[in-house]
Amino acid sequence: MDIFDKMHKSLGPIGMWKDQAEGYYVFPKLEGELENRMTFKGKEIVCWSINNYLGMANHPMVRQVDMEASRDWGLAYPMGARMMSGNTSQHEILEEQLAEFVQKPKAMLVNFGYQGMASAVFALVDRNDVIVYDSESHACIIDGVWMHPGKRFVFGHNDMESLEKNLIRATKVAEKTGGGILVISEGVFGMRGDQGKLREIVAMKEQYKFRLLVDDAHGFGTLGETGAGAGEEQGVQADIDVYFSTFAKSMASIGAFFAGDETVIDYLRYNMRSQMFAKSLPMPYVVGNIKRLEMLRTMPEFKENLWKNVNALQSQLTEAGFEIGDTNSCVTPVYLKGDVPEAMGLVHDLRENHGIFCSIVVYPVIPKGMIILRLIPTASHTQADIDETITAFKAVKEKLYSGGYKVEMPAE
Question: Class of the 5-53+301-401 domain?
Fold first, then answer.
């Protein structure tokens, strides 16, 4: 059989909707400035789908630094991987500042969050070690776990009883192999918006010998007194052995970092294949991220404005009878019931007739019969945006449950 034959038969569970969905529900083109209101298909929409939590993307100071750094350095510098020829003082300054901010001895830059996390998981464990990870971990964690040649166990999402059962299993395996145990959770789970139960996980270290890796992409900059993330929010930052976050959420940029004890970070620097054999993070991103981190540290009004909007949006959704689950972060999921065609009809209505753009999540990402409308509030949103969205959501919910979207999709 030709390896490509299967692709002619099926594009997969999401790709099967390509003809109806592409350019509209998937791979849409948002135009204009990265703000609370953008343009889609020629119409102004309230946008709840960009990870610009603190509203830095178009801040004049950020745009100025990005422009100057691009002018001064270009996008090529430095050429080569960090280990060979791509290291600079600016890269090291950013790492030092990140480590201090998240209260760890040392930090390490990586080019992208997804590849960085997958590569770090692979580097941290060998065939004798055991991984225990949350069932709703991000795809980058799952990909890293799949590369692991040893045993791996998955525990129910934020289920501490399930975690303990799997720690018992993992301990028995590690005793036979002579390896260790790595527990992986997230600071904030990007789909549900609930924080990982880091405090409870850390408490289990007293009985079970393991190390903890936390992906805090959605917590960094948004949670904790200083913005240092979910660990700070829960009072257990010091007990996170390897802390990870990206710049793609709060700092509206590119790149990511790991932070932890010096020996652990040095090990990653010398063993993470995705960084050893990849070009260094270009200088404009490094310089731009130094500025963004400075603003995050010294301008608390960004986080204050963000949470003002988060609290308003979530409280008004709840008051209007919408189910938003257990979110205790900025991520705001709205749970509805319906099939994929109904979801597409609902979102089409939201965008075309109500001017509201938010992400749609359906099977196979979540179980059949469920629809999640995922909203990402930012510091740039306004009360008017929230009011318009609540009004629109009430209208489409009523139409959904009265069968109004059980029709053939309108042609684009």
Answer: alpha beta
Distance CA 228, CA 222 (A): 8
Token look-up 């948002």 returns: 30
Return the beta strands (E) in 163-229 as ranges: 181-186, 211-215
Find, among 58, 53, 59, the residue nearest to 313 by Cα: 53
Task: Note the CATH number of domain 60-298.
Answer: 3.40.640.10
- Return the bridge partners of 333, or none: 374
Q: What is the value of pTM for the model shown?
A: 0.94
Neighbours of 56 (CB within 10 A): 26
pLDDT class of 14 with cuts at 50, 70, 90? confident
Residues 6+ apart with CB under 8 A from 231: 102, 187, 198, 214, 216, 219, 224, 237, 238, 239, 240, 243
pLDDT, tens digit, 9 for 90 and up, residues 335-348? 999 998 899 999 99
The 8-class DSSP code of residue 148 comes to -
Burial class (CB in 10 A: 0-12, 13-18, 19+), 30: middle
Angle between helix axes 113-124 and 262-271 (nearest 10 degrees) is 110
- For 21-76, write each residue's pLDDT tens digit: 888 888 999 999 999 999 999 999 999 999 999 999 999 999 999 999 999 999 99
Instruction: Reply yes or no on whether the pLDDT at 365 is more than 80.
Output: no
- Sorted by where each begins, the domain ranges of the chain are 5-53+301-401, 60-298
